[in-house]
Design a protein that fits this description.
Elements (H helix, E strand, L loop, with lengths): L1 H7 L5 H8 L5 E5 L5 H15 L14 H11 L6 H7 L10 E5 L2 H15 L7 E4 H12 L10 E3 L1 H14 L9 H13 L4 H7 L4 H19 L2 E3 H14 L1 H10 L2 E4 L7 H11 L5 E5 L14 H4 L1 H4 L4 E5 L7 H11 L20 E8 H17 L7 E5 L5 H11 L3 E3 L9 H14 L4 H7 L9 H14 L3 H6 L11 H20 L2 H11 L2 H6 L2 H24 L5 H17 L6 E5 L8 E7 L15 H15 L2 E15 L2 E3 L5 H4 L6 E5 L12 H8 L23 E4 L3 E11 L2 E8 L3 E6 L6 E2 L1
Parallel strand pairs: 1-7, 1-8, 2-3, 2-6, 4-5, 6-7, 9-14, 9-16, 10-12, 10-13, 11-12, 13-14
Antiparallel strand pairs: 14-15, 17-18, 17-21, 18-19, 19-20
Bound molecules: adenosine-5'-triphosphate (ATP) and magnesium ion.
Adenosine-5'-triphosphate (ATP) binds next to helix 3.
Length: 774
Amino acid sequence: KQAALKRVFARMNDRQREAVLQTDGPVLILAGAGSGKTTVLVNRVANLVRFGRAASTEGVPSWLTEENIAYLRDFAAGSQTDEERLAEIISEDRPKPWNILAITFTNKAAGELKERLAAMLGDSANDVMAATFHSACVRILRREIEPLGYGKSFTIYDTDDSLRVVKDAMKSLNVDDRTFPPKSVLSVIGRAKDELLGPEQLAEGSNGDYRMGVIAKIYRSYQNTLKSANAVDFDDIILLTVRLFQQYPDVLEHYQNRYKYIMVDEYQDTNHAQYQLVSLLAGRHKNLCVVGDDDQSIYKFRGATIENILSFENQFPGAKVIRLEQNYRCTQRILDAANAVIAHNTERKGKTLWTQNDSGEQVQLYRAADEQGEARFIVDTVLKNVENGAKYKDHAVLYRMNAQSNMIERAFVKAGVPYKIIGGLRFFERKEIRDMVAYLSVINNPSDSVRLKRIINEPKRGIGDSTVAAAEQISAQLGIPLFEVIANAESYAAMQKKTKPLGEFVQMILELQKTAEDEPLSTLLDEVMSRTGYHLYLLAQGFEGQTRLENIEELKSTMVKFEEENEDGDLSQFLEEVALYTDMDRTDLDDDTVLMMTMHSAKGLEFPYVFLAGAEEGIFPGRMSMNSPSEIEEERRLAYVGITRAKKRLYLTTAAQRLLFGQTTRNRLSRFVGEIPKELLDVEDATVVQHRVSAYPQQESRAIRTGGLSSVEATQPVAAKIDLKPGDLVAHKVFGEGMVLSVTPMANDLLVEAAFERGGTKKLMANFAKLKKL
Ligand code: ATP
Ligand code: MG
């Protein structure tokens, strides 16, 4: 019979099968990256739903005949669909799909789990509760929250909202926000909630510490405000569910009986509150299976504690511990690199992963002269792989900080490569960037009424919707642009009350037009920021505003680049380049796109080709972690996560000098790269020989134009540049042949619109995208 079961789960190795068939009691699966932890979890759910305890290690029941097992096997292979016969065979206490709760860390992972279950189980997969901690708890609270004093239709506050409440609380308590930065206060409150501490307990635990005492007071006021607004914050969602279960045993019992089988993926990243939640829910039936990897714990800064995994056997007596050691994901070389890096951590249990996969190619380290060369390499490599049969979606670009994505996006846009950013907006979709582009567009062309409406009262300057509506009406009736109507507001009765703010606005735009004529774009942007009040508006938003300001600094980097590339590039040409980005929006409908995300959001995922961008000291590991050995270890675990996302090929990229947040820095090579044995690395150094791709003289002139860095004269060989006119036939590596529809000279290159045989009409930079004239 065991042999028959083995055939049912033929694709699994012995240990994995053991984990799948261990249906009852506490189980801990502790194993390294790519060893099939998530795969086991999916198969466990499928096994429970299909066969229940009929297929379990101890429980092959005596009534299960060889014939029955053969039938089960055929069913597992999808060749039998006789539900009646099946019902006869399998045990009666088979759990229903809705008795199973499978928790994962991100929405993307939960989505993938559901997909894989649907592939194995069909429709009944819909009834399995596969969710993140937060979404599972929100569901429970929506039904049960009332005894805790909230209404069922409570609002969920995001960080922005929460920060505003903290600030109000501080104001009413007369707490100075320089001694107590609101962002830090909010994060202390958040950590307290992770520990299940209320304001009183936080105060008690502070041992008379003055600062903690003050924060506890803010916490209390914050919590009261939330409650009276019938709102919860992100951390409350878990905390309140735990409280509910602790205080209302009948409610707990209901959910214990509902979720008879509980599984948690990425258990190493759970915090104390999440641990409590799981313990309570599993407290009755004890069918709890957690899977995790202590080497992949990367959320300590959010209160996650590896303790949960290390002490599982004590917390759940009789737990079965299963270790998986075979990696099925990566090539031997990628795995060797990952093992070598993580071996430098001291705080670990220690384990080695092996694989039967091919040794694969070396890990490629590409050292570019600057961030633009880095982006260029990534784009070229993607295009080369696609030409050789890979899909765009086989590629993931991972980075440490969101801001790194900008220059890489820009290169993808110019080369016509479709991409998507996971867990974040694409650069030009962000509100503050759209606002700035709208200002610039209005300065460039005041008749752009759509953009004008976007920013006329952003930030607020007393020009309300009704004024704008009245002006629009006049504009429609008289057939003149909106801007002209407001510029002559005093001539129209309906506008008379608002002539002052309207007049000031118009005056401001006219003066900024002057700036646009006389000054470089980056100066213009600074002026727009200060003259419009946008800078102050963002400063007033605290933490969120800070991120937005950084994004605007990145917009400035884009402008500096543009001006270097384009000697006499002006505002209107810059806006045309920006229009390239908007053009990309249309190709986004396509699912075959390169994926860009932070290393944190890549946890649990895998891709054939992975780029780790910015492998430099100060970026990865980040500057903030440099002083603390334990934070360096956390960064190293993140490196381990990043490296082990790659199935076939791993690329590490660096820039000798990097423009980030509007500033140029030079960073040394990341220590993590140094920890990879030399023989695993294939190093390409493009910091010295910059002219590998000769069509891009912009790289060299840049040092001079940004000033101060170096006065080295550009030694760029003259590039063989493509010259095109409408009607020409061209060829693109990926889109095939196409006919040129329009050509606009821009940035030492040509902005070309062409209709291609594959992919339809696209806008590209002709030289950057390596178009060939036919
Ligand atoms: P991570 O630690 O990154 O979350 P993991 O341990 O959850 O990784 P999985 O994502 O489950 O690993 O599996 C990694 C890859 O190995 C997947 O592509 C999966 O299909 C494959 N795999 C798992 N087990 C086997 C097996 N027994 N035979 C063949 N392939 C397998
Ligand atoms: Mg996994």
